[in-house]
Sequence to fold (227 residues):
Amino acid sequence: MKTEIEFLRITPDNVNQHLPSLIACYRSVYSTEPWREWIFCPNCKRKWGEEDAGELCKNQFHCPDCRLLLSDFWASSKVGNDLLHEINYPHISFWIALSGNAVVGFTHGYGISPQNLESKLKLPGVAEAINKRFNFPELVIYQDELGVVKEFRGAKIARQLVLRRPNDFMASGLTCGIIRTMSDPPSVTFSWYTEKLNYYVIAEYHDKGKRVVLAQDLRDVARRLEV
Ligand SMILES: CC(C)(COP(=O)(O)OP(=O)(O)OC[C@H]1O[C@@H](n2cnc3c(N)ncnc32)[C@H](O)[C@@H]1OP(=O)(O)O)[C@@H](O)C(=O)NCCC(=O)NCCS
Ligand SMILES: [Zn+2]
Fold:
């Protein structure tokens, strides 16, 4: 990719300026593989990715089972409201990648107590696993979102985004990093984080896609990213 990419920190002061493009980027990232969260049936909750557009056209975007009109999986208003809420989270580190004025990648993470993270992730045992491994930290960092639009992938944009996070977190004295991702088939994040950044599984969902919660000391992550 020849285009010049700029990396910018998002704060409560500049979030509105980039919000429409950030929302479009978010929706684009999650609408295709591996998540395929483009549209869904409000009744049976089945979801489809952009890859299925041709097939769905035949039913005029109605659920083949329920016959109901399909809705956006990530409605712009919901994504925008969530992002505006999250920018005020404690110890937030929020970065975007810009190609001109267009947001083509994003990442954010924030501080949260192990118990609140367990509730958020709806996975019993997460807090206990964190406490055991990190000796009862008051707060951990939940590395919530990471995405790069399809056309810009493979150009180390995610690496550049992720590289900017550990220093932000460590400046707050927080060193325990947690993420959640899909392990089967393994998402790029799963392979990257477990094979190169030394994250390891602390809890599993046993659902479709075998989502897992991964943890690692951010000081080690920073060292590995700086190589
Ligand atoms: C995951 C994602 C953000 C990676 O973005 P990217 O800009 O293409 O990634 P990079 O080029 O910076 O590569 C980052 C690392 O992943 C590795 N990687 C990238 N694509 C890969 C692939 N298809 N298979 C295996 N490893 C891959 C790279 O080798 C690199 O590691 P290295 O720098 O140590 O060599 C992007 O694929 C994406 O947005 N996916 C959909 C959303 C998603 O799954 N987000 C994570 C939710 S948990
Ligand atoms: Zn349905």
